[in-house]
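Hi D.,

Good news: the full-assembly prediction came through. Inputs first.
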Amino acid sequence: MPVVGIPVKRLRTLLGIELEPADLLRQLGHLGCDVEGFTELARVRCAACGAVHEMTAQEEIPPACEACGGDLRSKHEELAPLEVVRMELLAVRPDMFDPGGLARALRGYLDRETGAPHYPVVPPALRLTVDARLGARDSYRPAIACAVLTGVRLDDDALKVVMKLQENLHWAIGRDRKHASIGVYDLDRLTPDFSYTVEDPDAFRFVPLGAGGSGAEHARSLREILEHHPKGMGYAHLLAEHRAYPVLKDAAGQVLSMPPIINSEETKVTLATERFFIDVTGLAVATVTRTLHIMTSSLLENLPGTTVEGVEILGPGEGERRITPDFRMQEMTLDAGRASRLLGVPVSAERAAELLRRMRHDAAVDARGTVAVRTPAYRNDILHEVDLIEDVGIAYGYHNIPPSLVPTFTVGGARPQAEAAARARTLLCGLGYLEIMTLALTSPALHDDLLGRPASPAVKIANPASSEQTMLRTSLLAGQLETFRRNLTHPLPQQIFEIGEVTLLEPLAETGALDRYHLACGLVSPRAGFEEIKAVAEVILREFGCPCELVPLEEAPFMPGRAAEARPGDGDAGEERWALRFGEVHPEILERAGLQNPVVLLEGDLEILAGL
Amino acid sequence: MRSFPREQFLIMTGLAEADAELAVPELARRLAVDQALIAAGAQLLSEEGLVTIREEPYRELVLKEAGRRAVAEGFPERRLVRALLEAGGPVAIRELPGLTSLEAREVGACLRFLQQKGWASKHGGELRPGDALAQGEPAPGADETLLEALAQRAGARAREQELGAAGIEVDRAIEYLKGRRDWLDVRAKRTRLAKLTAAGRALAAAGVAEAAEVGQMTPEMITSGAWRDVHFKAYDVRLGVAPLAPGKPHPLQRTIAETRRIFLELGFVEVASPMVESGFWNFDALFQPQDHPARELQDTFYLAEPAEIALPPDESLVARVRATHEDGGETGSLGWRMPWNPARARAAVLRTHTTAATARALAAAPGGPRKVFCVGQVFRREAIDYKHLPLFHQVDGIIIDEAATFASLLGTLTAFYGKMGFERIELRPGFFPYTEPSVEVFIWVEAKKDWFEMGGAGIFRPEVTRPLGCEVPVLAWGLGLERLAMLRYGVLEMRRLYLPDLQWLKEVPLCR
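Then the structure:
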């Protein structure tokens, strides 16, 4: 999960309540924030473009400015450090990613301002037309929602908050700009009305952000931006299958942006910006609308004194017309009895309504005694009554709920496989063997080559993260040999064992594979030999009560003539099941593994030994 | 005549005979008695004022791996000199690896030794023979002689004095070798020297006798009754003995065993589920949206073999899960409002949580009251480093019960961690797609004075339980076990649990 640093001073100002630092952390924790603590961020301002960069104590000043690409390391102005609360982003509550949204939630939780916040929307003065081609297969990004913010007054911190919020929403809802990508522009540099349309990748040109200037000589074709601009290269995959690319333009033909890639240099927000135009584009109307609601309402919280204005959106379908944002609330009901039963504490309908209001819902008890709830448009996590019950629980405080146990008596029972494993562990410990554990994930090189065997048919990973973990083990023997190899300097004799699951491909099994408990043990010493490991084998067979026929085994890693297989019953030759395999490891394998002393190994199938 | 226990008698007579100060190992060798016994005996005699013991530092020289190679293959500078002599004059440095089968890096590292010994020197890109080569190949230097001598000794080690006595210029050799890594180890050691005091000498001169004292009791002594006539030697109970290493369970297995025992004590039935799992059971049945980031290739191991797993044969179950995802179905939920793709549900994965096991257990018998748990390995797509492993163990549990509440979830987890030795637990708001309320479980670790996150818990959403046929509340949790083992056994890096270090496994105490 990404971590966000919430500026403490800003949070306190927006909160309007004095809280001790420890108290602030505790209240944030109760609200569900995964708080790491307070820290100071160093800050520098790029001398070229004025963008502010923040760094933790471990980070250095980046060589290049992210906004303009200029030489930041040598050309910057140092700013005062910033105290922040560091916390992990809770993906399900994007409305609490920023100081304004957090303060909104905390004010409710602390009972200073309850019920749903209301954000009146001024009727639209601006109109945006959506080109029908955006709904076509080869240029698909049909959904858009917009808003205008007026009365904006920015300083460095506020601008940073806007940018970070945008970035974090891209992560949480946008799935890295795929489902939703947000643009913020200086409306005073634009000429109404706007159009959302598509353009030819090669013929159409504009000056992207970070091109090094705003003159016509910096203009690039859409394709050039995707191929050479850092942001273009980073997000080019989102347009890879398109033949025409989405573009947002004003009435004068000035480009606002090429969603979801990059904005234009001309329209960028600066400290002097007083009016924002905001757009969210994406694949589904529901997602972009929700994102717009979160973005806009958080900005209203962060920038006191601003007003939101609607935008009239026409298209993409014939006659389609919407006005966004539309902060209409979601309506639901809550049964206080169900909430009490699920939480395990008595909560009356009145109390439930009060708790919900503290979580910033509008809630009132209706004539039938149920709680009628209206949830603000910025909450996108309420699917069911149980989600409201959780909010009741959080506001009640999980720490205020006394622990209890279910009153019902039930009889426990162990899995026979696990019990057999426990018995085998007792037995091998009694024989003086030390238990090891190795990873169930391995690779043909570690699992088969080491033992001089052909590659086992095994469960194989399609997207391994490392060349050393590409399959599930089918045997425990490689782990034994690998352990001896890792402990070359450890005194001899070494006696080890492992009990664990191996996984075998089995087409008849429901999932195409079967997990089986195996045991393995190994001994390395100058005098290790067949006799010793056979003695161990006999003990295991006797103690598990599993009479077996011993037959010679010719299979790597063992030496022919010095290895045996124990088959249950009378050792019927047609019988493929074996209880144990053991013997002396072939010297060629020892030599290849770099082992200088004789090794004997044993592997057993616990489920056969235990008759399961 | 004074009589002494056997070792003390031997020491008295041995030292008297040598009439000199002797090192304890040397004395033990002469007397053919174990060194530890001689050390103990000499200690007792010194307490009586018959022997004085003095400690003397000395240096022990040990041949290391790179040094051993140099002895076997010849010092690299000597090999270079031979190449120079053969060429009869300066040689370009870049040609030297070809002429000597040394690596370029080794040639480079060797230049300063050639210079130091006056054998050759570097001028620009070539190596010129030094004056010392006028008479042909130089005789072996102190360093070469020293390493050669060490290589011939048992254990490839010797004391400085012994080497000096053999005519080797030890200091000069050490000076030469100190810049070479892994050639020679010079260890500071101490030896104990014993000699008779005046009183001891007088007593020895007057004659001493060996007491009829025995160490090991024998079967004959017991059966014959001879034990009545012997004097059993008193042992120094403080002396060290050869260490024993017991066979014992792995620390993580002990934690797993304890976890199982506790849930069995609490009346839970143990279940298992396959490590190779379908997207359906690992995600869809748990109402994890199909576009959830955890389902992406970068977080979950998808399988090439088997690549697909058939959906459950109960078509109505699949239809209910599908409807729940798309529009909430009959659960009263809004659902994820996105089309549900059966291909994603068929994809085979390595299970990412043992919640897949409890979901299967719930589907198999959805009626309560019932309590079920599962301990197993789960997989996340990570490469191994100091804080990540691609797999770990979890214990998942569910309680299916009309009377189950969030309060009983807190109570059950408090009971579990209480039995594990952690008295305080806290549930903090969290988020999982399959539970509501969702909480993260923290335990207070007194030793570290901090809260530690152990896993997640909650009450299964109706979107999970109803499609599986369950109408009552289901409490659920998935807790990591590695972290418990690490806290208990003081392990700092999780990978230590899976990369067996036998020394550590022997040393980590069973009882914590």
